[in-house]
Design a protein that fits this description.
heterotetramer, A: alpha/beta, eight-stranded parallel β-sheet, four-stranded antiparallel β-sheet, 16 strands, 21% strand, B: alpha/beta, Rossmann fold, 2 domains, seven-stranded antiparallel β-sheet, 20% helix, binds flavin-adenine dinucleotide, binds flavin mononucleotide, binds FE2/S2 (inorganic) cluster
Chain lengths: 306, 261, 306, 261
């Protein structure tokens, strides 16, 4: 009982001190949480999605609250690749947690150029390829819902980047395993899922959509059952590691995903609600292992009984 | 700018009118670092419905380092907050955002509408304590006397000149608080600070920009995080096609930096 | 302001006093709510899904609570067609609200036989074809996710039943409009959506799934944003009426669906939480119309501004 | 069987041990129609988290037609209920389900474990009031004296013979409440009513079925509605491959109707 459990996990070549990462778009570029979270304790930091050029994003309103969840249509606002490297990465270098860069593009060429440039930046431990964001009208949506295109993007990034490549899947599909298998065949080191579910809300007083973009991505505790089901399905279908995302707010939530077969988890919307969520989850996983006399987190990964 | 996440005990709960409440929270770290115009994000319930924190301006910092918020019970979250009793505690994150910048002139006019009056107390106290000789005038507006009376008298007690306006004429000027700006006369040496409903701030900003008076406005938007992480709190920026973020570059902006409609 | 608004809507030949129906599987066979709700006020009652033969359903546990939602894997337990007609319909005849029978089968032939038999029962105002329930291993799942099969089932029921046919869609698809268009082409008078989202939950103490069936259907307020988005998409794509379902618990929720283009709504999980929900929703819609000086519910159907 | 949905004011709140609470609710329609062994479904919070109502046996109906529930604060919902104050109100649906059937014998043995003791109070009072001459023995079990003491003394005050068992031996028999069944001796004329954790009820049912004593058990399952609408509360039935529904055919079943593992 006195033994401190070993929380280390690996995703491709990426070695993490524990399985708790931040989810892209919910933790800024790390710096925003520096006074609230001990960043050095994180398994990894996944930064806001980066495109080749800066993007201004969608007009407001961009967020709306729903039952146990929220909708967002940020429209992928970001500083662009070069400013990210020049302005944001220096801070991230100093924090002793691996940095994962989430990338997005409108074409296979965009993705490949992003990956080639990041290959030259040694501080980037891994790339997470966002083929799933529902907010862009082109590229993103189609890549994530078509197995052949998902594979092609993966191959392009794989060819340009020799460290860990994660591909992040959209849940807005009939058969998530089909996409996961395509991406595995394309050379991904891991799949991360889920991105947001496409949703909508209306203000009945004004009769207008609550988001200027009309539809947006649903996240938070509301989506957890769907995310967990997909992680379980995908973990049984592929041989590469799975990173579970969707509504994770507590250690109990994270452990559900690990039991379902996830090698690591990402915490998203919960960072907004409880900035300390990631650290509490790390502590809670350790406590659960200790209470069950388990020496390593490996003992629960995929440990669902049925 | 350091922010803190604290479990703050409610040490006092006041009712200042129908559905208007003032809570005093024991959060010394937040109090000590707070700047006038900044805000806090408050979790209104232990569970996930409602999910998100709610933003509230820092209304006042008491002499014993307590944080006050002033709010109206409107929707789900504020109604839950209104039901919190003394001795219970709330999870609070703050201080957040960029507050008011010091006036460049010796005449200061604070314009507050409805709950927009909240942050003007902290700002007024701060200005008064700065020791700089200046004249401070507060123009306060609300729908009714019920809503405004105790806030206006609290503000007067700070030692400010206060003029009131109500929609129904039950207290002070019968009409909009913006109308009172005319009282400033042609004197250009006023710095104006406005906080309240969007149309009010827009009107104040327009008048100030037209008359060359420096004007700062405190904007509200939907916010998911308050931490500059979600990028949800965008408002169109005057410069180029981009956006300003209320929780990061704001909530207080120079009127000329905002793209008004 | 004193005028009582006209709440009447039509779905094919089915005329309803108001747009508020109960959702299949959440209101039993009506009788269960007789002491709690004035059944005569309902727009229509949709009964628990009926199959040709009685079904025992899945082993327990069959339900689990999730954030603002619930999972169910009832396994389509029902008394079977003949016992439904003999034992349950007599009560329903007496209540003065139209009766809609939700049907499910394992083959096109099953559906057609159900429809033929119900054609002979005049008290049945409409059939709702469940091609979407995620709990059956055969038939159901495939019908709801494949446009050609969805159309074929619709055609079979249409050929056998000359009153109103609604087809109920599964949300677990990449393109809901594709299925809706197929079903419209197959002769459906209306589409109802959504059925439940496929989800999962795990008890970390026992390390077992919370449902004996492992996966189940997610319903309740959590799914509302997804349902509303799909209803909006489908209402713009098809010409037949759309019945909105998913997380509707209050009049505000129902009005969102009507604004998004639904001609009527169904109330599901909310009946468990607040048995009076349907009546409160009817009253709330009337109050909203009155407050806005609107004479008829038709003024808000599809009335979203953007 | 008519059920009512009522907004019931909490008129009394008692703490009967660590995390054990008794709430008295003003719901006269429910009280007047309640039968021993039936239950109510209680909404524990105004919002949707937790979403579902929680089932509680009717613990007692007071002389002035109030409904009592007795519960342990275990999880989300029961912890919220434990925090409800006198004067607040709860949305309650009931009475629901089928309760206890009258004994066919003149000797009645009530076996309660943990919170399973709750409905036995109402049943015992009902039996005592029936005026039929009978001997009633209550066998009560819990983990500790802390949990059991006040319930056991309340039960004795009704006028029953009470024997206790605790897991840690701090009150009465050191061991399982089932062990106390041996005290009934060979006398077959006992009707047994058992309510408590599943393994306890299983053991009681097995012993009774073996010795030919009529036995009724009150089962618990996950419930979404309590109204026989969701079909979520299934337990395997002895007869054929089908299921019984705890909220409809139960929660009280004849031991021989249930398919025990
Ligand atoms: C920087 C900032 C400072 C604020 N300071 C104060 C203050 O000092 N006192 C005060 O009473 N109010 C203040 N507000 C507004 C306050 O945050 C909202 O009234 C509150 O969030 C409404 O929550 P609710 O759950 O009661 O309402 P809901 O039920 O969520 O909605 C009711 C109404 O409030 C609006 N609203 C909901 N959430 C927000 C949000 N996050 N931001 C803005 N509007 C929202 C909705 O659009 C709706 O019209 C401030 C807002 C911001 C952004
Ligand atoms: C007919 C019936 C009568 C009952 N009478 C009483 C009573 O008189 N006193 C009492 O203390 N408890 C009683 N229970 C159990 C009580 O309903 C649960 O303890 C309660 O629902 C737990 O809610 P929670 O939110 O605190 O727990 P959760 O946080 O939801 O879960 C905690 C634990 O309780 C279990 N649980 C959750 N919901 C239910 C449910 N609906 N039914 C059964 N178990 C559940 C979970 O599996 C988990 O192990 C009764 C249950 C039934 C079915
Ligand atoms: C405000 C916001 C912005 C997001 N931005 C991105 C993004 O840039 N790239 C990406 O891959 N996912 C993005 N996501 C999706 C999250 O990373 C995550 O997959 C999703 O929110 C589900 O997890 P959660 O329920 O824990 O939030 C964003 C989510 C939110 C709420
Ligand atoms: C317990 C339960 C049983 C259900 N049974 C059926 C069914 O038999 N046939 C069907 O078409 N839908 C069934 N549904 C789906 C509902 O009718 C509805 O489509 C879904 O629950 C979403 O609506 P809600 O969020 O309002 O519950 C069932 C749902 C629940 C919760
Ligand atoms: S509220 Fe999240 S970035 Fe401003
Ligand atoms: S709890 Fe819903 S049928 Fe019994």
């Amino acid at each position: 009982m006195a033994v401190i459990p070993d929380l280390r996990v690996r995703i491709g070549a990426l070695a993490m001190a524990n399985p708790v990462m931040t989810a892209s778009g919910t933790f800024g570029y790390g710096e925003e949480f520096a006074s609230l979270v001990n960043l050095a304790r994180l398994g990894a930091i996944v930064v806001k999605g980066i495109s080749l050029e800066p993007r201004a994003g969608n007009p407001p309103p961009r967020v709306a609250e729903t039952a146990c969840g929220m909708l967002n249509a940020i429209g992928l606002e970001n500083v662009g690749l070069e400013r990210f490297i020049a302005e944001k990465l220096p801070f991230l270098k100093g924090i002793h947690a691996p940095v994962v860069v989430n990338i997005l593009g409108d074409s296979i060429d965009d993705y490949q150029r992003l990956a080639s440039r990041l290959q030259m930046v040694p501080e980037v431990a891994a790339i997470e390829v966002n083929i799933s964001c529902p907010n862009v009208k082109h590229g993103g949506v189609a890549f994530g819902t078509d197995p052949a295109m998902a594979r092609a993007v993966t191959e392009a990034v794989r060819a340009a980047f020799d460290r860990t490549v994660l591909v992040k899947l959209s849940p807005n599909v009939t058969e998530i395993t089909e996409i996961a298998l395509a991406v595995e065949a394309g050379g991904a080191d891991a799949v991360s899922l889920i991105n947001t579910l496409l949703g909508m809300a209306i203000d009945i007083r004004t009769r207008r959509p609550r988001l200027a973009n009309i539809v947006g991505g649903l996240s938070g505790p509301a989506v957890k059952p769907v995310a967990l089901r997909m992680v379980w399905q995908v973990a049984r279908a592929v041989r590469i590691p799975v990173v579970g995302i969707g509504g994770i707010a507590t250690a109990e939530d994270a452990i559900e995903f690990l039991l379902a077969g996830a090698t690591a988890v990402q915490v998203g919307t919960a960072n907004f609600v409880n900035p300390r969520a990631t650290e509490e989850i790390i502590d809670g996983i350790a406590a659960y292992l200790q209470a069950g006399n388990m020496a390593s987190v490996q003992e629960i990964i995929g440990g669902l009984r049925s | 700018m350091a922010a803190y996440q604290k479990t703050a005990t409610v040490s006092r709960r006041e009712t200042l009118g129908e559905d208007i409440f003032r809570l005093t929270l024991q959060a010394p770290e937040i109090a000590r670092h707070a700047q006038p115009g900044q805000f806090v994000m408050v979790k209104t319930v232990a569970g996930s419905d409602p999910l998100l924190r709610r933003p509230f301006s820092i209304h006042q910092i008491t002499d014993d380092d307590q944080v006050q918020i002033l709010f109206k019970a409107l929707g789900k979250g504020t109604r839950l907050l209104a039901g919190v009793a003394v001795g219970q505690s709330l999870d609070v994150v703050g201080p957040l955002g960029r507050g008011f910048s010091p006036p460049a002139t010796s005449h200061v006019c604070l314009v507050g509408g409805g709950m927009g009056i909240a942050p003007l107390f902290f700002w007024a106290s701060h200005l008064l304590r700065s020791g700089r000789p200046m004249e401070i005038l507060a123009l306060l507006g609300a729908r009714t006397r019920e809503e405004l009376a105790s806030l206006a008298s609290d503000m007067a007690q700070l030692g400010l000149s206060v003029r009131s306006a109500t929609d129904d004429g039950s207290l002070g000027h019968h009409g909009l608080v913006v109308d009172l700006l005319a009282d400033l006369g042609p004197e250009p040496g006023w710095s104006v600070y406005a906080c309240g409903p969007y149309p009010m701030m827009h009107a104040v900003a327009r008048q100030c920009m037209a008359s060359g008076r420096p004007c700062q406005v405190s904007l509200e938007t939907m916010m998911a995080c308050g931490l500059a992480a979600c990028l949800g709190c965008a408002v169109p920026s005057k410069a180029g096609a981009g956006y300003l973020h209320v929780c990061k570059e704001g909530p207080v902006f120079a009127a000329e930096d905002v793209a008004w409609p």
